């Protein structure tokens, strides 16, 4: 049986041809599996139609990999098959959240979040460490309720961290209220340790500074029964 002595054309040092064939078959199956899951999503189906490049498809696969984690969310929510949308079950006196599969400890990252149903009394978007809880009793601003998360409540425009209100946001007179379906872009800069927000093409400003040197995850928390929240990872911010 032939054995590789150096890495060449995808073959690893010490790997036999049989081991190579097994690994390549597993890799092909993994790619096929991701493509099938992706095609089943509305956005994925759109991207796989004619007129969309392989680059578009790679961007979509990357976003799918950065979607909500079905194993890292409140027991009162579930992640829909598209991988991007959280559905909160109608459970009374509970606040429920979810984190994404991948967090960030370096670099600059952007993602979009939007509510596809009523906000209720509290609807928070932001970031959280792995230690931040994703469920609590009552209707509260879960993100920002401790020192492990930072959030913007879209209902009252308050910034929240460590259980305290850190002022209103954006900092302007008569700031407009969030409208259902409106996309908010979140920008996390782990080099400058800041979290900022955009609405449409308008930069709303930096909401939080002095973020810790830790792995931070995109997150949301919701209270309204049967509401849905979608989060799509975009990659590096377009401003560089």
Q: Key terms for this structure?
A:
240 residues; alpha+beta; eight-stranded antiparallel sheet; seven-stranded antiparallel sheet; 3 helices; globular; disordered N terminus; ubl conjugation pathway; F-box/SPRY domain-containing protein 1
Textual characterization of the structure:
Helix content is about 15%, strand content about 35%. The chain has three helices and 15 strands. Strands 1, 4, 6, 7, 8, 9, 10 and 14 form an eight-stranded antiparallel sheet that branches. The protein has a seven-stranded antiparallel sheet with strand order 2-3-15-5-11-12-13. The protein is globular. The termini are far apart. It comes from Pelobates cultripes. This is F-box/SPRY domain-containing protein 1. Belongs to the FBXO45/Fsn family. Keywords: Ubl conjugation pathway.
Quick overview of this protein structure:
Probable component of a E3 ubiquitin ligase complex. This protein has 240 residues and is of the alpha+beta class. Helix content is 17%, strand content 35%.
Topology:
Blueprint: H1 17-39, H2 42-47, H3 54-65, E1 68-73, E2 77-79, E3 85-88, E4 94-100, E5 108-115, E6 123-128, E7 135-137, E8 149-153, E9 158-161, E10 164-168, E11 184-189, E12 194-199, E13 202-208, E14 217-222, E15 228-235
Antiparallel strand pairs: 1-4, 2-3, 3-15, 4-7, 4-14, 5-11, 5-15, 6-8, 6-14, 8-9, 9-10, 11-12, 12-13
